[in-house]
Amino acid sequence: MRLEDDIISIKGVGEKTAKDFGRLGISTVRDLVFYYPRSYKTYSEPVPVSSVAEGDRVAVFCKVVTYVESHKGRRYNITSLTASDDTGSIRMVWFNMPFLRSVFKKGESYVFYGVIKIKGSMRVMEMPEYFTQFKYQKALTTMQPIYPLKSGITNNSITRAVDAVKDVIFGIPEYLPENEMSDRGLMPRAEALMQIHFPQNEESLRAALKRIAFDEFLEFLIRIRSLRESTVTEENFHRITKEATQKKEGFIAGLGFELTDGQKSAIQDIESDMSSEHVMNRLVQGDVGSGKTVVAVIALLMNALSGHQGALMVPTEVLAVQHFEDISRYMKPYKLSVRLLTGSMSVKEKREVYQELKSGNCDIVIGTHAIIQEATQFNDLGLVVTDEQHRFGVKQRDSLSSKGHIPHVLIMSATPIPRTLAIILYADMDISVIKDMPAERKRIKNCVVGTEYRPSAYSFIKQQVKEGHQAYVICPMVEENDITEAENVISYSDELSKELGSGIRVSYLHGRMKEDEKKDILHSFIKREIDVLVSTTVIEVGINNPNATLMMIENAERFGLAQLHQLRGRVGRGDAQSYCIFINVKKSKESVERLKVLEESNDGFYIASEDLKLRGPGDFFGIRQSGDMDFKIADIYNYSDMLKLAQDVSLVYGKQFEGKIIL
Ligand code: ADP
Ligand code: MG
After folding, report:
1. Which residues, judged by CB distance below 6 Å to any ligand atom, belong to the binding site of ligand 1?
2. Which tens digits make up the pLDDT trace of 521-563?
3. Which-ligand-closest: CA of 541?
4. Of 548, 542, 541, 502, nearest to 524 (Cα)?
5. pTM
């Protein structure tokens, strides 16, 4: 068997399974081999029953002391038994598994593994896994891979399929010379791929992850280096005119605020790039609220006034709409045509915009990925800006440049990457950093509190609204499902509306709403027709309403620090004092410690570095990726050492490895 073979050629994979695999994006052996587990499950030594507490996930070694009961409940068939060790007993309960009746025998002992619930005075485990003592001993010493799944496919079927292609994995060629691997402490590639699917122990898994992160970084660095070579000399067909740069001065004078030094020098960099001989390729890095948008707008303005088209790409439609409205307003005096282009627009509407882009009637287009995904043709695309989003990949750039001369590229990022790493990761770009915040800005005041503080938080919201300000409330999270998420936002906002009393206008926003609805709500919020906006994290990136001064985040313990920092960044964008209330519902020791970081600091770089320190070394995957790059395993915070190593290796071997790294 070979990597290129169809998944169906694997022993044990039939038509149906192949179809299920297809839904996970797995159609070849290669797709399967590079479909990595999301996490691993490890079992722990059994503990005495008397030592368990509500919510613990534990193993207990117990004797079955009752007969196994099985009866029809209202909604399920329920199978249960009581099991004890010397220190106490637990009721074990399973739903819709009547066959278990014949699995357990009174008087025999088993290991039960599950989460403890306390019901009255009774300890209960619902749907525990069960093992014989012998089997559990074996399970204890292994780590079970957990793959990302979709319905129809089980973890087991993936594991079995990977197991069946072990020989293919062993046959994956090594591109690194032996001595490089040993000198640099890198695990061989084939072994790493084996270990990631079937880890022997934590240590070998860690080494495997490192090696794969290394490969991903190296491949990436080789690609951006060749990209750099091809763009650095790319001729600039979209120079900005003298007239455009002059008009820009007028625009700045009319802004109503003084630009910060960081903004000024970023604009200066952009201006000189765009008037130079070569195409611009620039990253503007600045923390949330540092004022990156206006920098992007000025670039788009200069480009448009010089007679070229510009595109602004953002990650969400909500953000696209907001930028569209702001920028339309900004561009009005210049008689430039600004259009919105998003995935949810009707085919007819989209076609209209496409037409205008093709004919050159539209000067600036703002939208989501749809812009590039749907084969947009431009008349003369001069500048592409991406805001708050993924790195503008090689593919995207190719797809745009194939539609004319290579445009200038400007990337706005709030991801706090240490400078030393940014230089490596953005080796194909020039970097401008906005270090300073607008001068008038007052520091956001933070507090981390428990649920008992809710009434005070609500009266604080009232007070802020009375003073003419607005508030965001990020709703408590529910399990995965989108529908329940919507219901949850709606019911929370109903409750809140009752709490706050009439006179305070509460509305809500969630991911399931139609784009038009979202747009209307956001519009009303910005026009101050809504006082309190209850929302899911759809507002996480980029939304700007400087009049909002209060952010209340329910279930703060369930978000990553970086995400919380982004959410908080929605306030503190105007001159008034702003506040952020983090509600810590669970109050575990770990969450208290993490949230303290946010309470103490508003600095994205500091938060990112603390976040890293607080994550235990056992935490392989519990982290949000850095967001900017499209790696499966590699992540600049966890594997910064591998990034540096990959940098060294790429400098030594350069192009030699090009095309050799299979990922
Ligand atoms: P971000 O860097 O997070 O994208 P924005 O560009 O959205 O930040 O700017 C946040 C707010 O700050 C906006 O309301 C913007 O108008 C305002 N702003 C930007 N630059 C300045 C400045 N130099 N002085 C005062 N306010 C500014
Ligand atoms: Mg922004």
Report:
1. 257-260, 263, 286, 288-294, 438, 440, 542, 544, 546, 569, 573
2. 988 998 999 999 999 877 766 678 999 999 999 989 888 787 8
3. 2
4. 548
5. 0.71
